[in-house]
Amino acid sequence: MKLVIGNLKMNLNQKEIEEYIAFFKNKKYSHAFFAPTYIYLKEFVDNGLNTVSQDISPYSKGAYTGDVSANQLKSMGINYSIVGHSERRKNYADGMLVNEKLKRLLENDINPILCIGEAFEERNNNTYLNVIKEEIDEAFKNIDTNKLKCVIIAYEPIWSISTSGTGIVPTNEQISEISSFIKDYVQDKYSYTPKVLYGGSVNNINVDTLEEIGNIDGYLVGGCSLKIKEFNELIEKVK
Ligand code: PGA
Hints:
Blueprint: E1 3-7, H1 14-25, E2 32-35, H2 41-46, E3 50-53, H3 70-75, E4 80-83, H4 86-92, H5 98-107, E5 111-116, H6 120-124, H7 128-140, H8 145-148, E6 152-155, H9 172-190, E7 196-199, H10 207-210, E8 218-221, H11 228-237
Parallel strand pairs: 1-2, 1-8, 2-3, 3-4, 4-5, 5-6, 6-7, 7-8
Helix pairs in contact: 7-9
Bound molecules: 2-phosphoglycolic acid.
């Protein structure tokens, strides 16, 4: 089963979230997941939607004002969390923390959705495969390979993200190359074949073309996930 994960980022107010939940809770899609900001997580869980956190504290508990711990998420029924999103890496220098965050998620049996992806210059100067390797190795450092098996990888080239990049979607061949590369690299080095999602300007129209890629396991969707009708159409197209 392919996954479709809507990353709502810091969007939608209380009223808009209520409309959003009211629509999707009746659909009962098993392959659709929703990542709202922390303050709305409980409403998604309580309405039976597959709920994903957008991030997580690198610390376990204690005096970390503004943070939310993996244990707190788990105790309210959250089983998935995004980690290492490029916006966090860029805005908060989160790259350094991804390894610790991954450890906290795994200690609490939360499935991480690890975001990786190259910048435009790295694509153009052909260093992108090294960037992918380095991001995986940095994230997986000093973690028992048995524990890594539940880590899902989201390939999100920074240049293709609609708001922070150019909005240009890579070709199916480019996405397929990276997906195979990630699956082979992780299998060789960490002994499991991860699910690989594609993210970056995916919408209800271009998903028709993306669905022709044979070796990806779903999508991480930002902008389009904010529009109920469009996102619903996208979810229904993904098989
Ligand atoms: P986008 O965002 O679909 O708006 O490009 C994807 C993401 O940042 O996860």
